[in-house]
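TEACHING EXERCISE
Course module: macromolecular assemblies
Task: Read the component lines below, then compare them to the predicted structure of the full complex.
Student: A.B.
Group: 4
Components provided:
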Amino acid sequence: MAELLTDDQIDLAIRDHLPEWKVVDKELVRSVKKDTFLDGIRLVATVAQLAESMNHHPDIDIRWTTITFRVSSHDAGGITDDDLVLARHIDTAAG
Ligand SMILES: C[C@H](O)[C@H](O)[C@H]1CNC2=NC(N)=NC(=O)C2=N1
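Instructor-supplied answer key:
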């Protein structure tokens, strides 16, 4: 199981690599606004494939054209490197 990151490590990672994300209740959170509902669903499908390949899965909230991703390491009870990697993949998929 990946090690929990410190608040400073997380803040630096967000500052340097994940500016679209914020920390809420020990989770990385980002919302993505797409042009259409189906564009959002396609994004969810792409992220689902990535998550399955990593065996590391985000919580996903779908509200019309806004998709919100919440990423944390449930087994570790907080944010680990696995979450930073998944967040970067989500950013790439989101365009
Ligand atoms: C058994 C399975 O490998 C684990 O439950 C995986 C599945 N996907 C996961 N996803 C996330 N975000 N955190 C986990 O701890 C986790 N654990």
